[in-house]
Structures are given as C-alpha cells and as structure tokens.
Prior knowledge:
Blueprint: H1 11-18, H2 29-41, E1 46-50, E2 57-63, E3 71-76, E4 95-97, E5 100-102, H3 106-118, H4 120-125, E6 132-137, H5 146-155, E7 163-166, E8 175-178, E9 180-189, E10 193-194, H6 204-225, E11 238-246, E12 252-253, E13 256-265, H7 271-291, E14 298-307, E15 310-311, H8 317-326, E16 332-334, H9 340-345, E17 350-352, E18 367-369, H10 370-388
Amino acid sequence: MASKSTKPQSYELIKQLVSFDTTSRHSNLKLIEFVHDYLSDLGVESQLVHDKTEKKANLYATLGPKDKAGFMLSGHTDVVPVDGQPWDTDPFHAIESAGKLYGRGTADMKSFLAIALALTPEFLKRNPHVPIHLAFSYDEEVGCIGVRRLIEMLKNQAVRPYACIVGEPTKMKPVRAHKGQKRMHCTVHGLESHSALPDRGVNAVEAAAEVIAFLKTMARQIRDNGPYDPAFDPPYTTVHTGIVQGGTALNIVPKECSFEFEFRYLPNEDPEILFQEVLDFANNNVIPEMTTISEKSGFHWQELTSIPSLSIEEDADLSQLTKSLTGANQTETVSFGTEAGLFQIASIPTIVCGPGDIEQAHKPNEFISLEQVWEGEAFIRRLMDHITS
C-alpha cells in the first residue's frame, strides 16, 4: 500500500464521480460515458444496458479474460436528492477537510466505484487468468430498478460472474444478510357528499384510516410476538406508513385518499403473506360497508418497489473469503436493502462490503473518511492477490 502521507489512489476519481449530478430523477449518462471512455483508454470494452428512455444506462465491463467467470464488483451510480438539505459546501464538488471527503455520494457509493476504477490499471498489468467484472447500475435509490435490466442481460451471457461483492457502505465489514422491502401505494375511492349528510357519502379518508390502523396493529403484533432474528436491528419485520393524502375541505366527505406503506421483512419471511393480511382486512372489514353506499367505491393497490432480502450462510465460501480479505472475525447483517438480493435470486452468490458508513448516507454534508478509502483500496488489492495468486 502507498504511504498514507499521499492521497489514496482513487482520490481524484472520487471527486470526478461526485461532480456528476446523478440524482435519480436525472440522467446518469454523463457519468457512464466518462467511465466508458476511461475504461476504453485502458483497452477495456464496456456494455451499456439502457432504460426505455435511453436517458439512463447500466455499465458492464470485464477486466481480463472474457471466457471465464470471475468476481463482480457492483455498485449504483445514482444518488438521493439534496433538495432542502442544509449543506455547508457544494454537494457536487467534493471537498476534503480533516481527513474526510464531503460530497453527495462519497459514502453512498461513488467511492467504491472510484476505487474499482482506480485499481483497474494495476489489475490489468497483472495479466490475470481470472477476470473482475464491473457492474455499475442506475436507479438503485428508487427501488433497485436499473440493475434488473443488467441482470437480464447477464442471464443471456455465455459466461456469468461466479460471485459478486456489492460495495454499499458497511465500514468494510462483510454483510451476509439484509432485510427485504415491499413498498405499496393504495388509492381509496369513495363518494363525495355534504358533510352534513355523511351517511350519503363514502369517506375515503376514514376508510384509509381503518387500514392504516390495521397496519399499525400488525406492526405492534410483530414487535411483541415475532418472529425474531437477533442478528438484525430491530430483530423483527417492521411495518410503516409514511405518506397519507386526502380530502379537499372539511365540509366535504372526501371521495379519494391515498397512502403509502412498506414492509421491511426478515429474510425468512414472505412479504406476500403479510400483504395478503392487509387485503383480507380491507375486503372483509372495510369494503362491505363502503359498497352499500356506492358499488364503485373500494381500494386500488399498486406495488411501488420490491427489493428481495439477502441471506447467505456464515460458513459459505464467499463469506469465508470476504472475512479473510477484510480481517473480520464474522459477518454482519443490516436492515437496509441493496441490489444484492436480486443478484442472489439470479444465482450469483453475493455479499455486501464497501467503504464508508451508512449513517452518513442520504444526509446533508455526507462524507467518507480517507481512512475508509484506504481500507477499500487495500481490500480490492487483496482480492486481486487472491485472484492472481
């Protein structure tokens, strides 16, 4: 490893990647084109997998032989918005202060991408017999959307990665499991009437409130009765309602209301069973009264995102290897979701391990410590040693 009196090898690339405003609502193509050109200058071809609008793209590249399966280093290029956050500096201009790099995406998760790119020339010089695959996705922050197209592309490849490391910020600790997430939007259709004659209308807000109260009851029951997995914090599946909108005036029985809720579930739980409980409650306890007034009233359910959980065994080969590369005695679990579960479903064993602290993600003045960048670079070098030894 280079002396820590100098900058990490990936330092300038981190700053470069942060300078691209890849907030999920924007295109990520300028960053992807930069990475494509960077790799092309090193003699590495990249495959781009665009979205339907052609305004966003995943990038997939193989360092080393293309006819062999290798390790995939995976990360997302998009970041969350900075709107309304009290930043002390320009969030898209990385600034170093007191051993930390500040900027949107420094922790989540452009530093990992920069490390992989910065060490690419070093890996290529080793003339490896086993490749490293780079997989950079779009729209992870809004439901792990983009990586699904990349995975579909991989399914048709003659050679696929045999293992994957997703570099989300874990303070360089290997994470073998995380919760899954199912997010739902519900629109309640009622019937307007004057509030002096509420019996002639169907109050959509009140109907929504009944279901929301049921969701809270579910949350309490799971909290108090389990099932539990002490490896997680909190050690149970959580149920949460985050958005409610409805009504136009106090003297009008509201005809429409919408709300959004989510399940963050343990790896051994089925979110469809949980959602079915909500459907059964609405169908059996709320809708019958609504339809006595208006047959057109009811609920419309829409899945916003579904992110599968991740779970591999502590003694799995990938767990053991990642522990040896990081020096960790054991793997960990987290409650936030990642793209790792989607790779696992696609039969690519996956673990999560990357520089930075998730506690800094999505916040104003997001940062990564240079110490974490050094550790991330050392980790990738040890992976390269493992592949080329």
